[in-house]
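Dig into these lines:

——
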Amino acid sequence: MSQKNKDVVIWFINEILNPNRPELAEEVFHVDATSTGTTSGLFGENKLKDLRTFSGLYHNSFSDFHVEIKEIFSERDKVFLAIEISGTHDGEDFLGIRARGKKISWTSFNIYYLKKHKIWKHWGISNLDTRLDLLR
């Protein structure tokens, strides 16, 4: 079960998040899925419908937005993921900051909870808020 759950989360990163294909989210997310945290308090609890906004926020602001899995392991119904997120801010404003073509990267730690190989809960935290000065 642990390997199958890891495969679901890897597929989410590689096939939905990186290529900005939130329309596929229903394939890996439970209909009642929630996501909490994500960017060190900048975002609260989100529902599945909010994934389109979340994904677009990054892809519309960073033309080369990319998530790289640095560490992944699972236990029973949980998958832990350490990721590095990077991109060049050359698109839309990001969290009120105008694009200046600057490259940025940040780290995020995430726990995905799965039921029947579908993500039903996510909790994450990142250091993005400490890195935003790099965009100014």
